[in-house]
Design goal:
2 copies of one chain form a homodimer. Chain A has about 350 residues and is α/β, with parallel strands linked by helices. Chain A has 3 domains: about 45 residues, lambda repressor-like DNA-binding domains (434 Repressor (Amino-terminal Domain)); about 120 residues, Response regulator (Rossmann fold, 3-Layer(aba) Sandwich), CATH 3.40.50; about 140 residues, Rossmann fold. Helices cover about 40% and strands about 15% of the residues of chain A. Chain A has 13 helices and 11 strands. In chain A, the strands form 2 sheets. In chain A, strands 7-6-8-9-10-11 form a 6-stranded mixed beta sheet, with helices on both faces. In chain A, α1 packs across α3, α5 crosses α12 and α8 packs parallel to α9. The mean pLDDT of chain A is about 90. At the A-B interface, α4, α5, β2, α6 and α10 of A face α4, α5, β2, α6 and α10 of B. β2 of chain A pairs antiparallel with β2 of chain B, so a sheet runs across the interface. Chain A binds a DNA duplex (16 and 16 nucleotides) through α2 and α4. Chains A, B: InterPro entries: HTH_LacI, LacI/GalR-like_sensor, Lambda_DNA-bd_dom_sf, Peripla_BP_I. Chains A, B: Pfam families: LacI, Peripla_BP_3. Chains A, B: Keywords: DNA-binding, Transcription, Transcription regulation. Chains A, B: This is LacI family transcriptional regulator.
DNA sequence: CTGAAAGCGCTTACAG
DNA sequence: CTGAAAGCGCTTACAG
């Protein structure tokens, strides 16, 4: 680090000295609230420019109580849904002049949750947004004290104390399953992603749709979110002869399932139909192109910021987002006559 | 936001009062530097627990000069390489007790860069890490004053003033091209991703390898990083008859290229070989499984944090990371006898 | 070991 | 319009 010696960052007093005015005057120029004479304003601006001054947000936050950081607590940052939601949060935050501080909750045990929450709360936060996509998210949400403003992105409504940008997982599972049933499949198997403690909404929707149709409810297979684990699940599925349609917990898993089935010598959708969840950018380029429940994660992230900043309330509060819809592509089809019998 | 009334967060003085001690004593318990009598320590701990006290990092940063935020300036957060790098940064930061604040540089124009940099510098930063993967990154790096500690993740060495975790793009392009040439292809076409202002290192490596082998250097096709634009490029490539091998700027683009070629009626690798860059998690599940230059982005991110915290210096400083290596899978093969002639 | 005092860099009343 | 003063929540010498 010797390569780049750091100067002491200039502070307000340096600017004041360089401009020949008092400290409060510089502050006024910066905030623009009170009028400042033109000549002083000009001198101050020039001094700021020359010194490369940037106000110290810590000091500012200390006195105004104004916080310019939105904390995000999440179990992951790289998977499609997570990354897109974070992208939406960052966009909305930036346009509100806020920065996004991310803390990953690395595990669901008490220590990890407590450490992550403590780390986040150690910052001067305007509020925190929790991605309640998994257990880590749920635990983090529960561990947050009521001294911070909180909003969540969730698939299930809570107790109403915390505003949530909701995606209607349950409805999605129901719709996707009914679509597959409507194609003529006797039942639909489910390859599940980890839920946030309890069964995921999409799994519940899937189960209810089967029951409502009087279809048998096969035991769901579990994955760890990865395409690889979807692949492994598919290998098990391929050994059975009662499988004609599979609904996957997300698209990455669906990609793995398709590949696994293909490697086992089965054709998708001719032998088995596969549907996913999320509408991953690669879904339309997969072979076959993946039928999936599309969700607008970035919009969800933006809504959460809206809730946090108090710009969204009322009927949008905990109301399911209307952005969920089925995108039918080539990975689903009616069962083959033989299998459908 | 009325759903969840906020209490005023407890401050040190509240804890001191509750524990019946002075403010500095609480501070000492927290920091653990100076000895504090056991009974007072216990009372303080209890008060902290009961009140749910979290120290105000802004106030702490103000007096100690210790900053607990690493700012990350990046052009994107969702694409594989970016997201993985950020993941590595977050991991290393968290284990050092730091939080990661992300600011996306939305565009390369001066206003956008200045706004993003200003937003980031407005925080009490321990330092900033710039992802120099694109023009936005380069511009942001250039716009940073020398009052902040900076590290970058880059593919090209700089002037030595800023520590960079390097990935040797240039070598990667060279190696991948030579591998394809070694298979017997007369030349290799290139579908490029946007560089950071100048041609990307991988493109340079590709070009040099062709020249060194005396192979013709076809004009590269440009994309915007997306699989979709790779698909479009493939459609153009498919119309030519001199294409037998294609090196893509990244895997997402390669996925699109493969799909585009297939949709145009060509077989990969029988008619045309395709190789990518990065080793995206879906590369091994693609059909055909993608041959690609693997890069350990998370490690790059961790190194950048190491540089920033001054834990990494000397020979690792601006030294290419050794993690770049070719992973040969099924998307590449020798040219067909006819085409190779 | 522990408390009173000073100060980090800012902003906000308070006087002029 | 503008400066001197006080204070945000902490930590760090300084005295005891």
């Amino acid at each position: 680090m010797t390569a780049r010696p750091l100067k002491r960052p200039p502070v307000l007093a340096d600017v004041a000295r360089a401009a020949g005015v008092s400290v409060p005057t510089v502050s006024r120029v910066l905030s623009g609230v009170t009028r400042v004479s033109d000549d002083k304003r000009v001198q101050v601006m020039r001094a700021i420019e020359e010194l490369g001054y940037h106000p110290n947000a810590a000091a500012r936050a200390l006195v105004t109580g104004q916080r310019s950081i939105i904390g995000v607590l999440t179990g992951d940052t790289t998977r499609y849904g997570y990354a897109s939601t974070i992208q939406g949060i960052e966009e909305a935050a930036r346009s509100a002049g806020l920065v996004v501080a991310i803390t990953v909750v690395g595990a669901a045990d008490e220590d990890a949750v407590r450490a992550a929450v403590g780390l986040a709360l150690g910052q001067p936060l305007a509020g925190v947004i929790v991605l309640e996509f998994d257990i880590q998210g749920s635990r983090a949400l529960a561990a947050l004290p009521d001294t911070v403003a909180v909003a969540a992105v969730s698939s299930t409504a809570g107790n109403g104390r915390i505003p949530r940008a909701l995606f209607d997982d349950h409805q999605g599972g129901w719709d996707a399953t009914n679509y597959l049933l409507g194609l003529g499949h006797r039942t639909v198997h489910h390859v599940a992603v980890p839920g946030s403690g309890r069964p995921s909404g999409r799994m519940l929707g899937w189960r209810e749709a089967l029951k409502a149709a009087g279809a048998p409810v096969p035991r769901p297979l579990e994955t760890d979110w990865t395409a690889r684990s979807g692949y492994d699940a598919a290998l098990r599925l391929a050994k059975r002869d009662d499988v004609t349609a599979v609904l996957c917990g997300n698209d990455e898993v669906a990609f793995g399932v398709i590949k696994g089935l293909q490697d086992a010598g089965l054709r998708v959708p001719d032998d088995i139909s596969v549907a996913g969840f999320d509408d991953h950018p690669l879904a339309q380029l997969w072979t076959p192109a993946l039928t999936t429940m599309a969700q607008d994660f970035a919009e969800l992230g933006r809504s959460a910021v809206g809730f946090l900043l108090g710009r969204l309330t009322g009927d949008q509060f905990e109301a399911p987002s209307a952005n969920l819809h089925l995108v039918v592509r080539d990975s689903t089809a009616p069962p083959r006559p033989a299998a459908a019998s």
